[in-house]
């Protein structure tokens, strides 16, 4: 293997040298080409004035301008892993680098701080577990570019900085966003693992969320066979140990319209085709499933190349089972999906008279009702004849065929959207962390920028999302980068990269923007798409640089986005933004026997009166449009991203024909411009992307320059400068700010390599010293073992010599026979026995002392018990006396209570009597008040009539005067006006006659003018006739006014007479009023007296009630005291019984202990005396034995002396014999 690698390296090196020599022979450059993007050419001749002749590789020559050429990098930069390191950074060089790597299956390339990936349109063996292990824990420069490297960097940053991370995977549809998202999850699940007992299960669940969501949220489009038709932000959550503890998914912008319609070459969501292909025969029978072509919603493409829908359905079932979907939930989902397919087969026909819709085939409606668990009759009634509330009444609304079809499609979209959200909530509940998450890594996969032939409301929402994400990228890459340079005081000239997207975003979402106007139109009752586009044109046309009105199609508008200009068709925008559904059918769904369908429509449950349980009648307050919901979720997403450290991945689609190994240069360049790839490289090249705080810089790189920093305090900026000078880094590669050191791209990598080399050197030295110390210690230990072994061997040899010596054998044989040896053993045994007996005597004495102490304690306890018994007897006597006193008080209180109750009965009778009299008095008062009110009303009526008559008389007089003057003035003015009109008409007539005379002279040339003048003349004559008629009418009106004046005068006279009569009536009523006032005063006096009596009775009643309450309270307290005394008595009795029992038991125990103590004392005395006598006898025997042993010892000593003498004589003989042998 090593030889193969070296051979390959030599081949690559040789090829590079050849290409380098070829490049040096000619002046190579790039020629910008519309089709190929860039052509490699070399300059033949420079004509001056910007004109140059170049030659391509195929031999063709071109005369081009200097502006059409871009510099080419030397061959050593081919297939560069990071385009920020290119010598010449331009579009042609970037395109060539990407294309060169793509043709070699190197689909990943760094571009400064982010990763560029080109869809290979085929499977590559670069995602296996072996590859994952290669990238685990490696630095970015140590391995080739890969999505795994970005994941590992995010994971390490999360662990090191304790900061949330995010991966923003963006690009157009078909660029590979979804596949790279799956690889991110695969890598994190493999590297981070999971925490807890169910590790493998949680990993499987997280990984299987992707195929499940793809089944319900992905579809085949023209550009992509597995295009995500929704956006998602997957948060993989980690515990404090860096292990995965859970996952959470947020979804955005589900393309629910795809359920009901899609392009001819596309498919609906995968799950419909999977269900039809993979369901068993029994399931198909239960779900009423047929072939794909049997459903109107599934028209178009039915299959995808190299995709088995039946196998995909089995994978979906496995994913649902592992994630935690029960069998009942799965069955409910399949019933809903089959019911939605049947919805698409509903056909409506109109009646001949009123165009009211009806079902063409009611059997289809029956199948829908059966699958969705609702009654067919109710479903048909609610869909075709819904009840709506008009004011306070419910009325039945007749539906046309178009409206019925629209309502049906709206219901299908609503059901699928709610089902999709429920599936995501189910996944989230299964993968919930339960508060264990500390940090997370988020992965954003959302639909890319879309520019179609027909762009509608959905495309505007998607493009707004991408606009804000691109702004976030620009803000992170450009604005924040340069603002930090300014804050740190670095020498930097602010660079404007022309990516200010805020005007377009404000145009869409700010007040008076497009979405704001759309929301306003949705609240107005008679608004239409036409009124909406007219307001947009009026508000923004010629007022905003990003807004344009098409000349040929006024129902559209054009917006300038960062990716290009997009024309939007506003048809059905009002309906799409409102997103209405039939409340009648939705309430049926809420009562469905399908539990899942009832759950997702639980907000449509209705009360008995037909209104929704959830208050939906406040349209202005509770109505939220689709655009408002989208803006809320989008703002939440951007806020989440801003709280993370982002990592950007730009996905590029190489061609739209889905063919591997082919690059569509214009398409790729357009994406590079839209994604800001070139601008990102440029600012990385110009700026200082790597920055390190002073303290960390000193701590990390001080080992590269030991001894440079003196001890003691020193400013961090000075320390950084000293270190940089010692490391010999050129000034152009770094800048020192206020708190950090900023480095050019690649400088920190070089420092890290130097640091790693120094660390390797230091660690190698430390390891060498440690190994030496360990070796020396082992040597000393081994050397000590050898010395010990030699000493043991020497002693063993001496022992063997001694053991074999005959005299030593004789000594060992004689020693046991010596009496002295046995005497020592016996003496030692006697001393041990004496010590044992003394210890036993001490133990017996201690036991006697303990028994005496126990007896004194028992005597003390006995005295305390007798004292407690006396106390208990006294307490019992007191309790008995208290009980007797309580009985006496209770009897007295019972007597008082009975007296109180009798008094209360008397008071109640008196109160009833007073209440009766009070009722009578109140009745009299009411009758007097009614009479007084009638009199007051009559008087007020008379006064009012009098005043009214006076006002009418004055009003009639003033009105008569005004009418007379006004009519006279109007008649005079009308006369003057008519006279003036007659004069003007006559003048006009004369003028027209003159004109007519002049016109007759040139009749042929002015016939049209003659006709018009004649028409004007006729009109003026008609006006004269009308004026005469009006004059006559005014004269008749004048006569009528005069007649009316006479009538008014007669009415005035009649009013004068009525006034006199009213005055007479008024005098009469005044007299009646005075009489009523007199009677009222008398009645008032009676009322006051009655009220005083009632107040006295009330006071007495209150005092009686108060006394009664006091008595009841006293009775209750007495009863409580009696109960308490009874309880105390019972407690004392029980305590006395317990004490008696305890006393008896203690007396018995005391007696037994006294007996035991006496017996123990006697036994101890007897045993002590016996032991003492035995010891005395033993001592006497020992003394006698000792005397005999002494005599024997003397004898043995004498024998021993004799033996020693013999031994010495023998030794003298042995020496003489050895000397004799030695002499011989």
Automatic annotation (TrEMBL):
Residues 634-656 are annotated as: Actin-binding. CDD domains: MYSc_class_II. Residues 979-996 have a biased composition (Low complexity). ATP binds at residues 171-178. Pfam families: Myosin_head. The keyword Nucleotide-binding applies. Residues 948-1012, 1028-1066, 1182-1209 are annotated as: Disordered. One of its GO terms (cellular component) is membrane. InterPro entries: Kinesin_motor_dom_sf (IPR036961), Myosin_head_motor_dom-like (IPR001609), Myosin_S1_N (IPR008989), P-loop_NTPase (IPR027417), SH3_Myosin (IPR004009). Keywords: Actin-binding, ATP-binding, Coiled coil, Motor protein, Myosin, Nucleotide-binding. Gene3D superfamilies: 1.10.10.820, 1.20.5.340, 1.20.58.530, 3.30.70.1590, Kinesin motor domain (3.40.850.10), Myosin S1 fragment, N-terminal (2.30.30.360), Myosin VI head, motor domain, U50 subdomain (1.20.120.720), Myosin, subunit A (4.10.270.10). Residues 24-74 form the Myosin N-terminal SH3-like domain. This is Myosin heavy chain.
């Amino acid at each position: 293997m090593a030889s193969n690698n070296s051979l390959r390296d030599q081949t690559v090196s040789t090829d590079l040298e050849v290409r380098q020599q070829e490049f040096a022979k000619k002046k190579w450059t790039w020629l910008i080409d519309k089709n190929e993007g860039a052509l490699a050419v070399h300059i033949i001749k420079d004509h001056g004035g910007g004109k140059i002749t170049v030659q391509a590789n195929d031999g063709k020559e071109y005369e081009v301008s200097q502006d059409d050429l871009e510099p080419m990098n030397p061959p050593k930069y081919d297939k560069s892993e990071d385009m920020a390191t290119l010598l010449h950074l331009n579009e042609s060089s970037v395109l060539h680098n990407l294309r060169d790597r793509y043709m070699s299956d190197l689909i990943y390339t760094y571009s400064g701080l982010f990763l560029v990936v080109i869809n290979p349109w085929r499977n590559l063996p670069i995602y296996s577990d072996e590859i994952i292990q290669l990238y685990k824990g490696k630095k970015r420069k140590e391995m080739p570019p890969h999505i795994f490297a970005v994941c590992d960097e995010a994971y390490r940053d999360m662990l090191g900085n304790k900061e949330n991370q995010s991966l923003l995977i963006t690009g157009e549809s078909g660029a590979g966003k979804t596949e790279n998202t799956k690889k991110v999850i695969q890598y994190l699940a493999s590297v981070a693992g999971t925490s807890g007992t169910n590790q493998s299960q949680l990993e499987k669940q997280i990984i299987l969320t992707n195929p499940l969501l793809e089944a319900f949220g992905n579809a085949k489009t023209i550009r992509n066979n597995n295009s995500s038709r929704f956006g998602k932000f997957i948060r993989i959550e980690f515990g404090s140990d860096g292990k995965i503890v859970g996952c959470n998914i947020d979804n955005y912008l589900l393309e629910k319209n795809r359920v009901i319609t899609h392009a001819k070459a596309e498919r609906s969501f995968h799950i419909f085709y999977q269900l039809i292909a993979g369901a068993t025969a029994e399931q198909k029978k239960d779900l009423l499933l047929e072939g794909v072509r049997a459903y109107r919603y599934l028209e178009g493409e039915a299959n995808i190349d190299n995709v088995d829908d039946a196998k995909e359905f089995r994978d979906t079932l496995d994913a649902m089972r592992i994630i935690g979907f029960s069998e009942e939930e799965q069955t409910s989902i399949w019933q809903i999906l089959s019911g939605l397919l049947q919805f698409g087969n509903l056909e409506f026909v109109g009646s001949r008279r009123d165009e009211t819709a009806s079902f063409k085939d009611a059997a289809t409606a029956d199948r829908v009702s059966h699958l969705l668990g609702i009654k067919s009759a109710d479903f048909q009634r609610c869909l075709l004849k819904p009840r709506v509330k008009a004011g306070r009444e419910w009325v039945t609304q007749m539906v046309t065929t178009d409206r019925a079809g629209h309502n049906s499609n709206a219901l299908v979209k609503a059901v699928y959207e709610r089902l999709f959200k429920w599936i995501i909530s189910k996944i989230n509940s299964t993968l919930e962390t339960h508060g264990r998450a500390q940090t997370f890594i988020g992965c954003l996969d959302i639909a890319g920028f879309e520019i179609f032939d027909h762009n509608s409301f959905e495309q505007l929402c998607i493009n707004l999302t991408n606009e804000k994400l691109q702004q976030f990228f620009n803000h992170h890459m450009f604005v924040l980068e340069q603002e930090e340079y300014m804050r740190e005081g670095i020498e930097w000239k602010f660079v404007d990269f022309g990516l200010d997207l805020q005007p377009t975003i404000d145009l869409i979402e700010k007040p008076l923007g497009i979405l704001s106007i759309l929301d306003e139109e949705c609240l107005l009752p008679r608004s239409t798409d036409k009124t909406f586009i007219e307001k947009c044109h009026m508000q923004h046309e010629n007022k905003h640089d990003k807004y344009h009105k098409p000349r040929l199609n006024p129902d559209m508008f054009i917006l300038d986005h960062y990716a290009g200009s997009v024309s939007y068709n506003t048809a059905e925008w009002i309906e799409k933004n409102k997103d209405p559904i039939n409340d009648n059918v939705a309430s049926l769904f809420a009562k469905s026997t399908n539990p899942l369908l009832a759950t997702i429509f639980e907000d449509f449950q209705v009360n008995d009166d037909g209104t929704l349980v959830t208050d939906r009648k406040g349209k202005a307050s509770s109505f939220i449009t689709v655009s408002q919901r989208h803006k809320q979720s989008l703002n939440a997403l951007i806020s989440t991203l801003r709280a993370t450290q982002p990592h950007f991945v730009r996905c590029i689609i190489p061609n739209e024909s889905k063919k591997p190994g082919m690059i569509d240069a214009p398409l790729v360049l357009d994406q590079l411009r839209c994604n800001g790839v070139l601008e990102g490289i440029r600012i990385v090249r110009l700026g200082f992307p790597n920055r390190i705080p002073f303290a960390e810089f000193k701590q990390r790189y001080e080992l590269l320059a030991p001894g440079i920093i003196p001890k003691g305090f020193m400013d961090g900026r000075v320390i950084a400068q000293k270190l940089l000078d010692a490391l010999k880094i050129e000034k152009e590669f770094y800048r020192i700010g206020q708190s950090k050191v900023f480095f050019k791209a690649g400088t920190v990598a070089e420092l890290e390599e130097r640091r790693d080399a120094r660390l390797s050197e230091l660690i190698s030295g430390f390891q060498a010293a440690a190994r030496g110390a360990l070796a020396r210690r082992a040597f000393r230990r081994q050397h000590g073992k050898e010395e010990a072994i030699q000493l043991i061997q020497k002693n063993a040899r001496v022992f063997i010599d001694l053991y074999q010596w005959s005299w030593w054998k004789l000594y060992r044989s004689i020693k046991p026979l010596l009496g002295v040896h046995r005497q020592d053993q016996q003496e030692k045994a006697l001393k041990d026995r004496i010590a044992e007996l003394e210890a036993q005597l001490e133990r017996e004495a201690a036991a006697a002392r303990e028994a005496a102490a126990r007896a004194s304690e028992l005597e003390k306890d006995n005295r305390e018990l007798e004292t407690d018994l006396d106390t208990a007897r006294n307490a019992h006597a007191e309790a008995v006396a208290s009980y007797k006193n309580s009985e006496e008080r209770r009897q007295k209180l019972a007597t008082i209570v009975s007296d109180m109750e009798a008094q209360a009965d008397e008071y109640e009778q008196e109160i009833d009597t007073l209440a009766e009299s009070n009722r009578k008095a109140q009745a009299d008062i009411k009758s007097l008040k009614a009479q007084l009110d009638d009199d007051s009303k009559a008087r007020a009526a008379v006064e009012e009539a009098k005043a009214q008559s006076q006002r009418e008389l004055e009003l009639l007089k003033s009105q008569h005067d005004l009418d007379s003057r006004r009519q006279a003035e109007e008649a005079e003015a009308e006369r003057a006006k008519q006279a003036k009109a007659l004069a003007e008409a006559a003048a006009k007539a004369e003028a027209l006659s003159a004109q007519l005379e002049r016109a007759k002279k040139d009749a042929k040339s002015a016939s049209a003018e003659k006709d018009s003048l004649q028409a004007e003349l006729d009109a003026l004559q008609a006006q004269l006739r009308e004026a005469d008629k009006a004059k006559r009418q005014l004269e008749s009106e004048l006569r009528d006014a005069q007649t009316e004046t006479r009538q008014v005068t007669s009415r005035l006279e009649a009013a004068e007479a009525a006034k006199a009569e009213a005055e007479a009536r008024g005098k009469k009523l005044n007299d009646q009023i005075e009489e009523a006032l007199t009677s009222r005063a008398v009645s008032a006096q009676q009322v006051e007296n009655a009220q005083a009596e009632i107040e006295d009775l009330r006071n007495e009643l209150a005092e009686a009630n108060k006394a009664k309450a006091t008595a009841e309270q006293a009775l209750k307290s007495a009863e409580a005291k009696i109960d308490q005394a009874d309880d105390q008595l019972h407690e004392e009795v029980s305590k006395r019984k317990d004490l008696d029992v305890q006393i008896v038991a203690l007396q018995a125990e005391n007696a037994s202990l006294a007996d035991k103590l006496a017996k123990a004392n006697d036994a101890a005395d007897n045993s002590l005396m016996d032991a003492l006598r035995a010891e005395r006898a033993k001592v006497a025997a020992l003394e006698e034995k000792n005397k005999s042993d002494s005599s024997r010892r003397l004898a043995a000593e004498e024998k021993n002396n004799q033996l020693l003498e013999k031994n010495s004589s023998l030794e003298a003989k042995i020496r003489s014999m050895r000397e004799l042998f030695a002499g011989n």
